[in-house]
Specification:
Strand order of the largest sheet of chain B: 1-2-3
Shape of chain A: globular
Number of domains of chain A: 1
Mean pLDDT of chain A: 89
Helix content of chain A: over 70%
Number of helices of chain B: 10
Largest interface: A-B, 44 and 48 residues
Oligomer: heterodimer
Strand content of chain A: under 5%
Low-confidence stretches of chain A: none
Distance between the termini of chain B: 72 Å
Helix content of chain B: over 70%
Number of domains of chain B: 2
Chain lengths: 147, 253
């Protein structure tokens, strides 16, 4: 039940940010679906992986490929879909706790929470890079097969 | 024919792209491709988050350099999309400078969502993320209402001073106080959840991710630039909450 709510919220949250980023028309819905997809994949990976960072990595990678494919179809930059699609994964919560530990002067927790935040951001970034590189490989192979 | 005027237009495109949230890579690539489409002998583009420098050499040996300094960004992906289409068009048809100018004016006049919609969206996002991170319905409602005040204080404080540090400190202070007040009155249940919902609207999470992405890709300077910016924003938000919780945090306990 809680997962269903989270998935719906991920969709609405991505939709909201897509509107703030001024995405228009059909692309708006694709971007919001991307956000939902990223969270669904993240939740599904729970059956298989325990490490938070690797779940973030794989989820971002798949969503990047999703955005790349849609970007080709819609003839628009990948950023249009990608920025909104990773919104549910953005480590807002851990960044908040990092800040609140800093304010309260809890140094140990601050360091560990800060490390986690940077780790999660790095895994999202690495996931994006890996996804787009993989997609480029697909494209090259496809062109070779055609040509 | 490559003229100073044309280079100016090309830089306009690059500048607008960068301001609206395109990646460094894409900006450099677009400028380079356009210049090459006009038969430039050599093009050198250097882009970081706050500046674009282009030097190009024409076939007759004449060289131009132009620079743009970028101060402010506002993400507008619709514009990136349209600019991208424009630069593709230019690459294949190499139109006159005047045509590009008119197209740019047209793109700049494309409308954004109205303020009312933006207020609603702010409320929606804050409420949604409060629930997403485990808050209850009452928290979500409070968080949505606070988000409206957040949007209001963003637009008001930007009128007074555009310094991003100042704006963030004021806004996070407002969120902090309202969240504390709502819990102390008894409308809200959990301060954390209410604040997290609102913080998603301010937090430099996207900037943080993009900066690391830039570093991995090899645009180290831009990446470090954005990373520093993200850290400064996070710090300023923390300062705002800090002030709120130091002065008014006692109300709840």
């Amino acid at each position: 039940m809680i997962y269903t709510i989270q998935i719906i919220m991920a969709f609405l949250g991505s939709l909201g940010f897509s509107i703030l980023f001024n995405i228009r028309g059909r692309k708006l819905w694709y971007a919001a679906i991307g956000g939902m997809l990223s969270w669904v994949i993240y939740l599904l990976l729970d059956f298989w992986l325990t490490s938070e960072i690797s779940r973030f990595f794989i989820s971002t990678m798949i969503v990047t490929i999703y955005s790349e494919i849609l970007a080709r179809i819609e003839k628009t930059p990948t950023t249009t879909f990608l920025t909104s699609s990773v919104i549910p994964l953005i480590p807002g919560r851990s960044l908040y706790y990092t800040m609140s530990y800093a304010v309260n002067g809890d140094l140990d927790k601050f360091v560990s929470s800060g490390g986690q935040t940077v780790g999660l951001s790095a895994s999202i970034a690495a996931g994006i890079m890996a996804g787009s590189s993989l997609f480029k490989v697909f494209i090259v192979i496809q062109q070779k097969l055609k040509g | 024919m490559l003229t100073e005027e044309l280079l100016c237009c090309v830089l306009d495109i690059g500048e607008q792209m960068l301001v609206s949230g395109a990646e460094i890579n894409r900006v450099e690539d677009s400028i380079k491709r356009i210049c090459q489409a006009y038969n430039a002998k050599r093009v050198d583009v250097f882009t970081i988050t706050s500046s674009i420098v282009v030097t190009l050499q024409r076939e007759d040996g004449c060289t131009f350099t132009q620079t743009r300094r970028i101060y402010k960004y506002s993400t507008n992906l619709d514009k990136v999309d349209k600019l991208n289409n424009l630069s593709r068009y230019i690459c294949s048809y190499t139109p006159e400078a005047n045509y590009i100018k008119n197209q740019l004016i047209e793109i700049n006049e494309r409308k954004t969502y109205s303020p009312l919609v933006q207020y609603i969206v702010y409320a929606l996002i804050a409420g949604v993320f409060t629930v997403f991170f485990g808050g209850g319905l009452r928290d979500a409602l409070v968080s949505s209402i606070i988000a409206v005040f957040l949007k209001l204080s963003i637009s008001l404080s930007q009128k007074v001073d555009t310094n991003i540090l100042f704006v963030n400190i004021i806004c996070s202070f407002v969120i902090g106080i309202l969240a504390i007040l709502s819990v102390s009155i008894g409308i809200g249940e959990s301060i954390d959840k209410i604040i997290i919902g609102n913080i998603m609207l301010m937090i430099p999470g996207i900037a943080l991710t993009n900066s690391i992405r830039d570093i991995i890709r090899g645009d180290t300077i831009s990446g470090l630039f954005r990373l520093c910016e993200a850290i400064v924003i996070a710090l300023s938000i923390a300062i705002g909450f800090g002030i709120a919780s130091i002065f008014f945090g006692g109300i709840i306990k």
